[in-house]
Design a protein that fits this description.
about 210 residues, Rossmann fold, 7-stranded mixed beta sheet, 6 helices, binds 5-O-phosphono-beta-D-ribofuranosylamine
């Protein structure tokens, strides 16, 4: 399964996806990394892994539709049939989401439907929740919404700052995102009435919740 990964920055989730695709039991390869920002650090990670990269700079397009068309063209030209959003900070158009329905994933650093949108670490701290975490879901036109594939619970510490909480959640992101991609590439994931069903997954041992590793 050829996968395109969209980034805007650091690319640590991209790196986790690159690593899992190098495992023998993951029938997927990352064939393209797309960044909307020319200086995204994740582009170096892709280059280091020998993965093709393209910059589709949103500031050079006069409409969201034109930007999304350029993204779509780049992905199809690379022969990709699946997209992973990994810290991609642009909202894609409804048409794009419909064209890629159930073939585009996103990761969000909260336990959706709690804390959708931006600044979710600060909002979790302000709300005084004791548990937050991260969610891998199929992307839908509504932001941070869509059928949930995997989640991880992460404790909030009394002295947490946005940064310390984000760093703790990121560790779990780097486990559940690769695991979700592996399960999909293995053909074990179905969406039935907007609920994700996963074949032969060991729920009893928390394989989908707080997995020990990808
Ligand atoms: C991650 O926390 C992800 O959940 C959020 O943006 C951050 C991207 O980090 N959408 P990285 O670029 O993958 O390191």
């Amino acid at each position: 399964m050829k996968v395109a990964v969209f980034i805007s920055g650091r690319g640590t989730n991209l790196q986790a996806l690159i690593d899992v695709c190098n495992q023998d039991d993951t029938p997927a390869e990352i064939a393209l990394v797309v960044s909307n920002r020319p200086n995204a650090q994740g582009l170096q990670r892709a280059a280091a892994a020998g993965i093709a990269t393209v910059v589709v700079d949103h500031t050079t397009f006069d409409s969201r539709e034109a930007f999304d068309k350029a993204l779509d063209t780049a992905v199809r030209r690379a022969g990709c049939e699946f997209i992973c959003l990994a810290g991609f900070m642009r909202v894609l158009t409804d048409d794009f989401m419909r064209d890629w329905r159930d073939r585009i994933l996103n990761i969000h650093p909260a336990i959706l439907p709690a804390f959708p949108g931006l600044n979710c670490h600060a909002r979790a701290i302000e709300a005084g929740v004791k548990i937050t975490g991260c969610t891998v879901h199929y992307a839908r036109p509504e932001l941070d919404n869509g059928p949930i594939i995997a989640q991880a619970a992460v404790p909030v510490m009394p002295d947490d700052t946005e940064e310390t909480l984000a760093a703790r959640i990121l560790e779990s992101e780097h486990r559940i995102y690769p695991m979700a991609l592996k399960l999909i590439a293995q053909g074990r994931v179905r969406v039935v009435n907007e609920i994700v069903r996963i074949q032969d997954v060991d729920l009893a041992n928390g394989e989908l919740v707080n997995p020990a590793s990808a």
